[in-house]
Design a protein that fits this description.
12 strands, Alpha/beta knot, seven-stranded parallel β-sheet, Ribosomal Protein L25, Chain P, about 230 residues, elongated, about 25% strand
Length: about 230
C-alpha cells in the first residue's frame, strides 16, 4: 500500500509523492496515468488512489478513502533489545502484524553497545514501522518505548495491570506450552537470543508473568515473534 502523510496533500483529495515512495511506485508497481493503487493516510483511513501525473520527479494522484485500517492484535510486545542489524527487521515485522505497543528493554545478555546504535533513533524506528505498515496495508504506527534499565522497567509494570491481561514470558525452560487462539489482551515478553537469565525470569514471574515454551528449539528473535503471535492469535 502507498502510505501518505498530511504533508503530502496538495488538495482536498490530491496527493503528491517524491523520493523513496515515488521510486517504489515507478519501479515496482510500474504505473501509468489512470492506474489505481491501494492507498492510506498515516493514522487514518485506507482506500484507492488514481494516478493523474507521473514522471521521474513527482507522482500525483487523486484518492478516495473508504475504509478503516485493519484492526490491531491485542498485544503489548516486550523485547530485549535485539542486535542492531536485526532491529530493523523486528520493528517492521511487528508493525506489519498489527502490534501497537513495543517496549525495547535491557537485559543481562544485551550488549551495552546496542544502545548506542543509530538504528534506535526515533527517525529510524518510525521509518521501519512505516515499511511494515505499507506491507500490511495498515496506517497506525506502533508506540515504541526504550527502557535502558531492566529493574526500572519491571518496577513500572504494575502487578494490577498485569493481572488484567494474559502476561506471558517466552522461555525455552518454561513448564507450560504457549496457549492457542486467546481472546484476551496479552503482554508478551521475549528475551535476547540466548534468553533471559534466571534472575530476570524470576523477577518477571514475581509480578505475574507465566513462563511458557514453544518446545526445545531455540529460535531467532524475529522468528520467535512471528511464531508466538501466530499461535496466540
Amino acid at each position: 500500500m502507498v502510505l501518505f502523510e498530511e504533508g503530502d496533500f496538495v488538495g482536498e483529495d490530491r496527493v503528491r509523492l517524491q523520493n523513496r515512495r515515488l521510486d517504489h511506485v515507478r519501479k515496482v508497481h510500474r504505473v501509468s496515468v489512470g492506474d489505481e493503487l491501494r492507498v492510506g493516510v498515516l493514522g487514518g483511513r485506507v482506500g484507492r488512489g488514481s494516478v493523474v501525473q507521473i514522471d521521474e520527479k513527482i507522482l500525483e494522484m487523486t484518492i478516495r478513502l473508504e475504509a478503516d485500517p485493519p484492526a490491531p492484535i491485542p498485544v503489548r510486545l516486550i523485547l530485549a533489545l535485539p542486535r542492531p542489524k536485526v532491529l530493523n527487521r523486528v520493528i517492521a515485522a511487528a508493525s506489519s502484524m498489527g502490534v501497537r505497543e513495543i517496549d525495547l528493554i535491557n537485559s543481562w545478555r544485551v550488549e551495552k553497545s546496542y544502545w548506542r546504535s543509530p538504528r534506535l533513533s526515533d527517525e529510524n524506528l518510525r521509518h521501519q514501522s512505516i515499511l511494515g505498515l505499507e506491507l500490511a496495508g495498515d496506517t497506525v504506527l506502533p508506540a515504541i518505548k526504550l527502557h535502558r534499565l531492566f529493574t526500572s522497567f519491571v518496577r513500572e509494570m504494575s502487578p494490577q495491570m498485569i493481572r488484567r491481561q494474559l502476561a506471558l514470558l517466552a522461555d525455552p525452560g518454561g513448564q507450560r506450552e504457549v496457549p492457542r487462539s486467546v481472546t484476551q489482551p496479552v503482554v508478551l515478553a521475549i528475551g535476547p537470543e540466548g534468553g533471559f537469565i534466571q534472575r530476570e525470569i524470576d523477577t518477571l514471574c514475581e509480578i505475574g508473568f507465566a513462563a511458557v515454551s514453544l518446545g526445545p528449539r531455540i529460535l531467532r528473535v524475529e522468528t520467535a515473534i512471528a511464531y508466538l503471535l501466530g499461535r496466540l492469535f
